[in-house]
Amino acid sequence: MNALFVLFLNLGGSEVILILIVILLLFGGKGVPNIARALGKGIREFKDAADGVQRDVMKNTGGITQTINEHIQEVKKEVDKLTDDKSK
Questions:
Q1: Angstrom distance (rounded) from CA 69 to CA 21
Q2: What does DSSP assign to residue 1?
Q3: Fewest Cβ atoms closer than 10 Å to its Cβ: which of 10, 23, 36, 72?
């Protein structure tokens, strides 16, 4: 998947135009909007699903994050006490 994405990024302007011409020849002028619409809908559904997964992960790890932040604050207080004691 990553290799395909990297290859896609290496396309120049002439290659993109050639691909668009081939798509136009294969599907015709009336088929291209349908393909673009379907592609846009698929991308939108994928993004919505990814956002849903991200929300679920954040919701389920919220308690863990809060506990970790509390422990970090406790450690910071201890470090501050030690640095204050050393400076005296």
A1: 55
A2: -
A3: 10
In a structure prediction context, what are the per-residue pLDDT tens digits for the chain, which is 88 residues long?
Answer: 455 555 566 778 888 888 888 888 888 888 888 888 998 999 999 999 999 998 888 888 877 878 888 899 999 999 988 888 777 6
State the Cα–Cα distance between residues 76 and 82, nearest whole angstrom. 10
pTM for the structure as a whole: 0.49
Q: Following DSSP, what letter does each residue of 4-18 receive, concatenated?
A: HHHHHHT--HHHHHH
User: Please, are residues 27 and 38 in contact by the beta-carbon 8 Å criterion?
Assistant: no
Separation between Cα atoms, residue 3 and residue 5, nearest integer Å: 5
